[in-house]
Write a structure and sequence with these properties.
Layout (H helix, E strand, L loop, with lengths): L7 H7 L11 H10 L11 H7 L3 E5 L14 E5 H7 L4 H11 L6 H9 L3 E4 L5 E7 L2 E6 L1
Antiparallel strand pairs: 1-2, 3-4, 4-5
Bound molecules: zinc ion (ZN).
Amino acid sequence: MKMNIETDQDLKMTSPGWQGMNWIRKNKRIAIYVRDGHKCIYCGITKAQAKRRGVLITLDHVEPRELGGCNSVHNLVTACLSCNTSKGDKTRDEYVEYVKNTHGKHKGIACRLEKQTSLPVYVKSAAGRVTKISVVKNTERRERV
Ligand SMILES: [Zn+2]
């Protein structure tokens, strides 16, 4: 299935599971962007480049929600909308295969994913308190630092 997604509005209309930008707290979203260096983990496009090209930067579930993937920081990566859409509901391994077959440029995506998702994420609250989010057996744990 091929979709042409240009805007948030289109995505809203084409994706039944769409929950807007509010399914994740802003702090957590920003912490993930910061962890990933504000770059799409798949193609490497930066936030600034994406903005110039009119591409949205989004969060991708490495293990798709459709397959039980959770909203933990270790299952979320920064991805441009174009890569996020092409990954769709493929698993990490399926996507690596897909990229190898269709674009011929593997570029160590699986390896980058592994590295990124294992990095801790720090979230700063409005009160200035910094919290480290780590995941133990798929359960999110917060510790003050
Ligand atoms: Zn991308």
